[in-house]
Amino acid sequence: MKFAIVAADSDEAQEAKVRLTHRYGSVRPKDADIVVALGGDGFMLETAHEHLGSGKAIYGMNRGTVGFLMNGYEEEKLEERLAEAEHVRLHPLRMHAKTVGGQEVEALAINEVSLLRESRQAAKIRILVDGVQRLDDLICDGILVSTPAGSTAYNLSAHGPIIPIGTPLLAMTPISAFRPRRWRGALLPHQAKVRFEVLDPKKRPVSATADYTEVRDVVSVEIYEDRGETVDLLFDSEHNLEERILREQFLP
Where in the chain is the domain with CATH 3.40.50.10330? Predict the structure, then answer.
C-alpha cells in the first residue's frame, strides 16, 4: 500500500506533514493508492476534487477547525488505520450554469450547489424538476441542492434536512425564503434533474457555486447527480461517516 501525505497551508497542517512523512515516508500523489489529507473540511474537498475519478481513496486527518469529513489526528499506527478504514463512495453533483453574457460553465460539487443573490435585491427563481415546473416564483436570498455528504454542511445551516449516507435522495433547501413563506424545501430522488431559472437577472443578479467554484450573473443552472464520477473517502471504523451523520441528528 503506497500513500501520499498532503497538507493545507496552515502551520499546524504543514508541521504534521513533516512529522508523518519523516515517520512513514510519502510518495507522489500520482503514484499513491491512498492520499492522506491533513487540514479541515475545505482542504478535504479540494483534495477530493483533485482526485475525482482517479481511483485513489482519500483519508483525511483533522488539522483544521470543523473536520466533519476528517478522522481524528493521531500519529500512531497510521498504516494499520489505513488498512482497516471503511470506504464510502460518493457521486458528486454536476452543475451546468449559463450567464447573462452567454458563457456556459460546468463544475462538480461533492457537498452542494448553491445560488445566492449578489445585491440588496432578493433573488427571484423559477424551479423545475425533471422538466416540470414546481415553483414559478421563489423570492429568496438563494437556494441550494445538497448531496447526503453535504447535508450536514451549508444545507444544515439553512435548516435543511440531514440525509443519511447511502440514501438515494438530494435535499433542495431555500435560503431565507420570503415567498412562498412557508415553503421549507423538498427531498428529491437522486436521479432528479433540477433546473433553476433566474427571473430578472440584471436587476436581481444571482451567483451559483458548486462547492468552491463560483459563477457570477447566472440566468439558469442545471444540476444532476453524475453517476459517472466517483470519489472514495476512508473513515476509521469506529467513527465512520454514516455514524457521524446519524449522531448529528440527535445533537441539542
Answer: 3-91+230-248
Q: Is 9 a catalytic residue?
A: no
Give the burial class of 153: count Cβ atoms within 10 A of its Cβ; 0-12 exposed, 13-18 middle, 19 or more buried: buried
Which numeric CATH code is attached to 93-225? 2.60.200.30
The Cα 168–Cα 181 span in angstroms is 28
Residue 207 to residue 190: CA distance in whole angstroms = 24
Which of these ranges, 86-95, 116-125, 238-247, has the smallest mean pLDDT? Answer: 238-247
- CA geometry: angle 202, 206, 211, nearest 5 deg: 155
- Is the distance from CB of 194 to CB of 172 less than 8 angstroms? yes
CA distances from 155 to 77, 113, 163, 238 (A): 35, 10, 10, 25
Asked if 233 and 82 touch (Cβ cutoff 8 Å), the reply is no
Give residue 76's pLDDT band: very low, low, confident or very high (50, 70, 90): very high
In angstroms, the CA 150 to CA 61 distance is: 18
Instruction: Give the model confidence (pLDDT) of 8-67 as tens digits.
Output: 999 999 999 999 999 999 999 999 999 999 999 999 999 999 999 899 999 999 998 877
Fold for the domain defined by 3-91+230-248? Rossmann fold (3.40.50)
pTM of this prediction? Answer: 0.89
In this structure, the strands spanning 123-129 and 194-198 are antiparallel
Per the residue annotation, which of 9, 11, 31, 41 is the catalytic one? 41
What pLDDT, on a 0 to 100 scale, did the predictor assign at position 242? 81
